[in-house]
Design brief:
CATH architecture of the largest domain: Orthogonal Bundle
Helix content: 55-70%
Order of helices and strands: HHHHHHHHHEEEH
Largest sheet: 3 strands, antiparallel
Strand order of the largest sheet: 1-2-3
Structural class: mainly alpha
Shape: flat
Number of helices: 10
Distance between the termini: 55 Å
CATH superfamily of the largest domain: Ribonuclease III domain
Oligomer: single chain
Radius of gyration: 22 Å
């Protein structure tokens, strides 16, 4: 691993290079892997993002803050940060994992970002780790999404109905198919007061319900 190049990408130079090595090491490469650092970094990341949102959005509700934080610390966002930093080329893996291309999986890159945050915290202090998070997240902490766009379909459907004094929707599992390890759910979302109903499919009951709620919203909007 070219440490000097990685230092430049991160905008931070480790005093203890062993922490950097551990943060970039997948469990397939041995016992000195990043998972404990990942645990620490995940906790700090949630705090730093929560504090930033609290300070920048004084009028936002708790629910809005929670949804925006979730969007900023989810795997998809972490993977994008990892891509911005070019971390895929520095992850240390065991032979089998390297051959399978694990190092390019978004989940692994997301874990690596969290581990790096934890490593910076231990190598320096909380203020330095916060500065790294704010620099790595960049515009994501400034150009924030509309909280309403982050609500899941079931929540949006319920609020749509409540705003029109209509009763809550009912969800019913119509079918469960496939083997136990790969089940598919078919769910019906029904509005009894208007005799409206749609169906949704998914790999879990929750996912199918969300898809059914999304379909119902599209029907109501139409």
């Amino acid at each position: 691993m070219n440490r000097e190049h990685l230092y430049r990408l991160l905008g931070y130079r480790f005093r203890d290079a062993a922490l950097l090595e551990r943060a970039m090491t997948h469990r397939s490469a041995g016992s000195g892997h990043y998972e404990r650092l990942e645990f620490l970094g995940d906790s700090l990341l949630n705090f730093v993002v929560a504090q930033a949102l609290y300070q920048r959005l004084p009028e936002a509700t708790e629910g809005d803050l929670t949804r925006m934080r979730a969007a900023l610390v989810r795997e998809e966002t972490l993977g994008a940060v990892a891509a911005d930093l070019g971390l895929a080329d520095f992850v240390q893996l065991g032979g089998s994992a390297l051959k399978s291309g694990v190092y390019r999986r978004r989940s692994v890159l997301a874990d690596t970002v969290e581990a790096l945050i934890g490593a910076v915290l231990l190598d320096a202090d909380i203020d330095t780790a916060r500065e790294c998070v704010e620099r790595w997240w960049g515009e994501r902490l400034i150009t924030l999404p509309d909280p309403d766009t982050l609500k899941d379909p079931k929540t949006r459907l319920q609020e749509w109905l409540q705003g029109r004094s209509r009763p809550r929707p009912e969800y019913e599992v119509l079918e469960i198919s496939g083997p136990a390890h790969q089940q598919r759910f078919r769910v019906c979302c029904r509005l009894d007061d208007g005799n409206e109903h749609v169906e949704g499919n998914g790999a879990s009951r929750r996912g199918a319900e969300q898809n059914a709620a999304r379909a119902m919203l599209e029907k109501l909007d139409a």
